[in-house]
Amino acid sequence: MRKFLSVPIAFALSLVFSCTALASTGSKTVDLHYNNIKVMVNGKAVITNSEPFVINGVTYLPLRDVGSALGFNVKWDPTSSTVNLTSPILIDKSEEDQYLGSTIENYLFSKYAMLNKVSFIKFVVNERKEGSKHEINVTIELDLSKNNDAWKELSDAQIETWLGLISDDLQVSFNNKDAIIRGNVSREGNSDVLLDFYKEGEDSLKVSFYDGSFRDGVPAPKKLAMETEYASKIFKISDLSFTVSAFNYYKNINSVDVTLASAKDGTSIDWSNLSNTDITNSVKEMGRTINNDYIFETNTKLDKVYIHFRDKNSKLIESHVYNVFLDKIE
Length: 330
Hints:
Radius of gyration: 25 Å
Order of helices and strands: EEEEEEEEHEEHEEEHHEEEHEEEHHEEE
Number of helices: 7
């Protein structure tokens, strides 16, 4: 897991073209050795304005280029001869796991918000870890009223390549190449799922398209009646109330993914006072309710129900998976 820090560093070495290194109290001439040194950050090459070099067995890198690649703001203070590296956002370590999700969401938006002429408006990421099992869910929202013609021009291959890059990036960002990635692209303000995708570890990405109403050659989107019925539905755990803010059905894994949001301040603190038994029993009952409603509509059972709890500020509190066949929380 990558962590961002705010670190001031006094940096006393500067390089001039005469190959003279200037220290804080004088100067001396040294031999610089260039060996076509490459800089990689998270497996990606960093292009530097100045070539890295070696002095007496120590490799020197251009701090501004490397710092920027790591996400830091880099500034030089000539009055104190100090290089200041500052992270874009400071992290309270106690909130690190909650913070990471929103950081990844911002990162995905900055990198993948455009696909050819199509612009996406939101990336929502939920994470769940249990032992060695690591699942990451991402919902990508699209305003088709502004992108309808551009979406029609996309081919399946273009969309699959884009989703593959997102899935790989999520595994790198969460530092787990074996993580399971589940996601969908849906319409803003509408529960229509245009497609969903699934990737387990290093296996190939699987994509199911349901956007035949908007692109030719694929099935029309199937919308469950309960998706509309569950909009703004309220569930409770003890005295805490949560409203359904997102409801998605994944055909390729026969599962439902539900996000529940609180409108109350301090929900994370109140949640910490709940017992594990209260949480487990309540989540299990939610899973049973959702599965029973699904059976009523389709005459078939779900495999699993994924439930995510978020606070008023959309920070993830906890995620759980209800296994329908085992009637237990995984």
